[in-house]
TrEMBL record:
It comes from the Bacteria. It holds the Pfam family GFA. Residues 3-111 form the CENP-V/GFA domain. This is GFA family protein.
Length: 115
């Protein structure tokens, strides 16, 4: 299925092709503070449609995940990184997608605070 997503102000818009039936809820310091519900997709399944200004990139800890943030509204719609095999992945913030019923998703909890 093809989903449309954006930051709050609309300066960043993207689409993601994925079958989303579950979400990852992580308790690490950034995910818990931002309230992320994530779905990981191959990097080539996320297409940036609009970027009015360069996205701000934030990394921490091992610096493997590049959190992308709109410099206008501060929303973080996705992050970019690699999986353990070295393949490009996108961590999509499901709260930024249109037309997805978050309450219908199976939520998988991840203990990122201790991993």
């Amino acid at each position: 299925m093809l989903y449309q997503g954006s930051c709050h102000c609309g300066a960043v818009a993207y689409q993601v092709e994925a079958d989303i039936s579950s979400a990852l809820s992580c308790n690490c310091s950034i995910c818990s503070r931002k309230g992320y519900l994530l779905s990981f997709v191959p990097g080539d399944k996320l297409t940036l449609l609009k970027k009015d200004q360069p996205l701000t990139t934030y990394t921490f800890n091992s610096h493997k995940i590049k959190h992308q943030t709109c410099p206008v509204c501060g929303c973080s719609p996705f992050a970019l990184g690699t999986d353990p095999q070295g393949n490009a992945v996108a961590a999509v913030n499901l709260r930024c997608l249109e037309g997805i019923d978050l309450d219908a998703l199976e939520i998988h909890k991840h203990d990122g605070k201790h991993s």
